[in-house]
What does this fold into?
Amino acid sequence: MTRTVAALAATLATTVAVALAPAPIAQQPSSAAMRAFDGSWSATGQRQTLPTEGDRVAAVVQLSGAVVLSRDTGLGSGFTGEAIGFDDGRSTVAGRAVWTNARGDRIFSVVNGEPIETGRRIAGTFTGGTGRYAGITGEYTLTWQYVVDNDGMVNGRAVDLKGRFGFGTSGR
It folds into this structure.
């Protein structure tokens, strides 16, 4: 039992440090160079909670699943999306996400918003990428259409994933 609590505490401390670390500053492309995208994200994963004062709980959430863009705007149309987040039970909700295409190229982002529950909004800011996504900047938002939490296992779907992206001031 003590080992489980210690492991959870170590995971929580690492998650908070990574989620709250400042993102590198990238040069934003001009608005004309930005391209819009939209799609959906279906994800499953785990939520671990810890009681806090009152009736609130803090939570660490780890999700993965399919990110499907409705049309190819230069990003591609399908990714495996992974996210890890921390909710302090009061006001801090932060995390990181990575989208990986079939070739292994990645897009990294910082996410923040409301706790992962049905109808809640999340905002993401692209912080860079690898391979064909090197130098990517931009942002996105989504609202969870539904989230089902069954004894720590989480399933959810966001249908209004919308955003825009570009590739720094040099363009692509």
